[in-house]
C-alpha cells in the first residue's frame, strides 16, 4: 500500500465514521483489481463483461466496531473490514471452542471446562469486549491445542468469507447500482440507512446474492484444497482440517451460521420482507443450505470433485444442530423459537427475495455487473 492510496482511503472514509481520533489510523495493502478479481473468481480471459480499470483498495480500519463495507470514491472501489471485526471474530470462535459441547469431534474435549454461557459479555465493539473480559478475569480460550488452532482457522474462514462478500457487492454491480439509482455510495454490513420499503427489499436481495457468491467462491477453494495430493504429506493438523471434505464444508457452514448472528439478533417473529437491509440469520442460513446442491454439481462437473450430495447435506444438517447449540450460548435463547415455524424457515420472505431477484433486480443489476450473475 502506498501513501497516496492510504491518504485516499482516509479521505474517503472520514465522513462515514464517527469514531475517536485515536482510531483514525489505517493499514492495508493495494490490490491490483484486475488480477485479484480474476484469481478470486477463477475466471478465464476475458475475465469480465466490461473493463475494470479502477483500483480496488482493501484497508483494515483500526476501529473497534464490528463492521465491513464496500464503497466507491473518486472512481475507485474500496473494501473495509475493521480491525475490531478481526478481534471480535477471534474471540467468538475461541470462546465457542472452549466449550466442549461445540464441535466435540475436534481435539480433546476433556481438557475443556463447560461454561454455562461462554459468550457472556459479548459486544459488537472490541474495546468494550476487552474491558469486560478484564473485569471477569480474562478471555476464554480452548485449553486443547488442536481446538485452539481450529478456532484460529474458523476465524480466518469467516474473514475470508466477509472479504468475498464485500467483493461481490462490487463485481456484481451492487455498489454502482446503489449510486446510480439511490445516491448511496456504500453498502454497509452493520446497521441500516433509513431506506424505503422496496429499496430495503432490494438491499436484502443484494445481500442474498453476495452471500451466495462468497459462499460459492470459498467452498470452491476449500474443495480444491482437499483434492490436493500433497495434503497427505502435510502435518497432522493440516490433514485433520482438509482430510475430509464433508467435515470441512460442514464446519465452514457452522462458521457462517454463527457469523450471521453477529450482524444482529432481531425479533424473527416479526420479520417481514422489506423491513431491514439484511435478511435475518435463519433466512441467510437456509438460503446457503439450498445452494449446496448447485455448488456440488458445479464442482463435480468442473473439477471432478466426486462430491456425494446426500453425504454433504447430512454433514451440514449436523452443522445446523451445532449452530443451534452455539446460538443458545450466544443469545441464551431457545433456537426453536426463532428457527421453526412461520417466523423462521417458513417465513414468506424466502419467496419474496427469490421473486424480487428473478423478476426485478437480476435484470436491473446486469448493466452494472462486472461478472456473470446467476439467475
Any key phrases for this structure?
alpha+beta; 54% helix; 375 residues
Explained architecture:
The chain is 54% helix and 7% strand. The model is unreliable at 16-38, 40-46 and 266-274 (pLDDT under 50). The protein is of the alpha+beta class and 375 residues long. The chain has a five-stranded mixed beta sheet, sandwiched between helices. The protein has a domain at 146-368. The longest helix has 30 residues, at 197-226. It has helices spanning 3-13, 33-41, 83-97, 126-135, 145-171, 174-182, 197-226, 236-242, 245-262, 281-303, 309-331, 336-339, 349-365; strands spanning 26-31, 56-61, 68-73, 76-81, 186-188.
The main β sheet shows up as: 5 strands, mixed
Radius of gyration: 20 Å
Shape: globular
Estimate the mean pLDDT confidence: 77
Tell me the distance between the termini.
37 Å
Uncertain residue ranges: 16-38, 40-46, 266-274
What pattern of helices and strands is seen along the backbone? HEHEEEHHHHEHHHHHHH
Structural class: alpha+beta
Number of strands: 5
| Helix run count | 13
**Strands in their spatial order, largest beta sheet:** 1-2-4-3-5
List the helices and strands and how they pair.
Layout: H1 3-13, E1 26-31, H2 33-41, E2 56-61, E3 68-73, E4 76-81, H3 83-97, H4 126-135, H5 145-171, H6 174-182, E5 186-188, H7 197-226, H8 236-242, H9 245-262, H10 281-303, H11 309-331, H12 336-339, H13 349-365
Parallel strand pairs: 2-4
Antiparallel strand pairs: 1-2, 3-4, 3-5
Amino acid at each position: 500500500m502506498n501513501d497516496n492510496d492510504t491518504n485516499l482511503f482516509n479521505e474517503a472514509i472520514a465522513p462515514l465514521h464517527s469514531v475517536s481520533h485515536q482510531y483514525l489510523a489505517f493499514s492495508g495493502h493495494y490490490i491490483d483489481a484486475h488480477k485479484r478479481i480474476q484469481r478470486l473468481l477463477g475466471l478465464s480471459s476475458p475475465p469480465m463483461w466490461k473493463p475494470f480499470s479502477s483500483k480496488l483498495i482493501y484497508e483494515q480500519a483500526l476501529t473497534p466496531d464490528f463492521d465491513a463495507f464496500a464503497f466507491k470514491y473518486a472512481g475507485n472501489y474500496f473494501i473495509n473490514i475493521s480491525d475490531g471485526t478481526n478481534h471480535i471474530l477471534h474471540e467468538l470462535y475461541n470462546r465457542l471452542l472452549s466449550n466442549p459441547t461445540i464441535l466435540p469431534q475436534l481435539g480433546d474435549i476433556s481438557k475443556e471446562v463447560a461454561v454455562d454461557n461462554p459468550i457472556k459479555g459479548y459486544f459488537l465493539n472490541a474495546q468494550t469486549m476487552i474491558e469486560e473480559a478484564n473485569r471477569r478475569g480474562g478471555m476464554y480460550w480452548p485449553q486443547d491445542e488442536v481446538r485452539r488452532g481450529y478456532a484460529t482457522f474458523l476465524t480466518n474462514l469467516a474473514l475470508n468469507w466477509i472479504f468475498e462478500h464485500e467483493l461481490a457487492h462490487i463485481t456484481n454491480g451492487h455498489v454502482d447500482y446503489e449510486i446510480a439509482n439511490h445516491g448511496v455510495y456504500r453498502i454497509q454490513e452493520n446497521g441500516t440507512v433509513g431506506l424505503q420499503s422496496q429499496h430495503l427489499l432490494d438491499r436484502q436481495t443484494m445481500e442474498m446474492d453476495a452471500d451466495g457468491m462468497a459462499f460459492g467462491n470459498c467452498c470452491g477453494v476449500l474443495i480444491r484444497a482437499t483434492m490436493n495430493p500433497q495434503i497427505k504429506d502435510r502435518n497432522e493438523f493440516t490433514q485433520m482440517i482438509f482430510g475430509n471434505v464433508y467435515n470441512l464444508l460442514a464446519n465452514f457452514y457452522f462458521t457462517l451460521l454463527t457469523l450471521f448472528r453477529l450482524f444482529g439478533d432481531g425479533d424473527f417473529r416479526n420479520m417481514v420482507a422489506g423491513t431491514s437491509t439484511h435478511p435475518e440469520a435463519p433466512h441467510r442460513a437456509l438460503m446457503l443450505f439450498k445452494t449446496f446442491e448447485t455448488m456440488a454439481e458445479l464442482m463435480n462437473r468442473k473439477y471432478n470433485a466426486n462430491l456425494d450430495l446426500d453425504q454433504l447435506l447430512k454433514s451440514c444438517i449436523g452443522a445446523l444442530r451445532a449452530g443451534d447449540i452455539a446460538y443458545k450460548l450466544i443469545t441464551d435463547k431457545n433456537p426453536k423459537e426463532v428457527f421453526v415455524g412461520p417466523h423462521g424457515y417458513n417465513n414468506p420472505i424466502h419467496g419474496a427475495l427469490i421473486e424480487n431477484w428473478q423478476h426485478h433486480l437480476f435484470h436491473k443489476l446486469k448493466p452494472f455487473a462486472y461478472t456473470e450473475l446467476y439467475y
